[in-house]
């Protein structure tokens, strides 16, 4: 194992000016473009050849996706791949395999270890195996109709799972230059539309931009007090960087940019959540599926 040169970006990020942060984001976009330019023939994870069945330097083997191992799932007998890629049916099979993993978890691992949301309190919703299995069954019935129309978003790609400032290393003499990225152990090869997501360093507390237009300061900015102006400037900078990433991604790799925007749609949200019903709770998935029923002609065509 090699040591990554440089120091963590987290040492500099909070004190960086917007222009320097945009230089980091531009490099991350080119990093995404490089990953998107190298599709794979199978879904799974990369292994050194000495750990696999062939003589190449690297081979594709079973997935290392943490959702197949966390919370006791590693003890289950599951289809972890690899799975050869064939546009259309294989993507559907991949989604069904994810949901089957959730079904086995619900049946054999007991109560969810970390349910998200307000559950189990007085008068609140109480998750149950029956309700979770019902949600999965409903999803199984419509999964093949909810695949993205753009087949380019189905192709198998390797993607980094968590690009936050502690996983990105930079040159200490020039903190705008990325020298390496760590924390690849759970990286896996999966359909692009499930893989792509915004880097963790772009996540912020506050309203997300509603379009690709660069944000502006509030109209009453001059009327705000000093503390309010500081908060407004901070939010404006965070929103601007968020939009800048998406614009640059669309410029450099339109398929990836379109896949990112798909994640925010009803179809994209269902595809993502259907693989986490064991831990995240089924009410949201069922709510989304009811929206699909109401918008069936629009979504399925």
TrEMBL record:
GO terms for cellular component: mitochondrion. The keyword Transit peptide applies. Its main location: mitochondrion. It is found in: Mitochondrion. Signal peptide: none annotated. Keywords: Mitochondrion, Transit peptide. Coiled coil: none annotated. The keyword Signal does not apply. Residues 124-192 form the Aminoglycoside phosphotransferase domain. It comes from the Eukaryota. Belongs to the AIM9 family. This is Altered inheritance of mitochondria protein 9, mitochondrial. It comes from Aspergillus transmontanensis.
